[in-house]
Amino acid sequence: MLRLLLLPVFLWVMLLDAGGHEAGEVSEGNSHRWWAVGIFAVMALTDKLDGYLARRLNQTSKIGTILDPLADKLLIASSVVLLSFDWAAGAEYRIPMWVVASVYGKDVVVALGTVALLASVGKVSVAPRMLGKVGTFFQLLLVMLTLVAPDLDRLLEGSAGIVLTGLWWIVAGISIGAMVDYVRIGVLQYRMARLPASPAAV
Prior knowledge:
Elements: H1 2-16, H2 18-22, H3 32-57, H4 62-82, H5 86-89, H6 97-121, H7 130-155, H8 159-194
């Protein structure tokens, strides 16, 4: 709930400096992005703390299993889209549309596959997969480093472009891999549901 409440605050703080990027001014005046980085860090840490406490105390709930991934998806989706515009991230640091498409494409395929399974066999099991978790980590890292990219360039000129370009390919590659993995699991669930019931079961 804290992450969901902080999300609009995070986006609002990011937008406070958007005008400077539009004119190509990534300067001292764009100080609000560090507030955005701080809020983003709090949201990421509470995500890890939430998962740790749930496992440690063996306390889970249905609403928690829904809100936890929902908060992650909303944070990543809104941040990635916002940082794909020149006026939000700066022309040299903005996230390319093909990376945005890969991130959204995986989620769209999973959502459509879930609906298709429910419609055809009446049930579906969607569990977190390793590639999905790794993908979420790199997507969050991409957002964080895009926010601090101007400062990376101040420390070492050209470093931000190298790091971000590497992350773009990593995020896109893992997103496509995760999409293929979820499709494979969906096909297996469909085939298992379509198997005829054994005599013992009848």
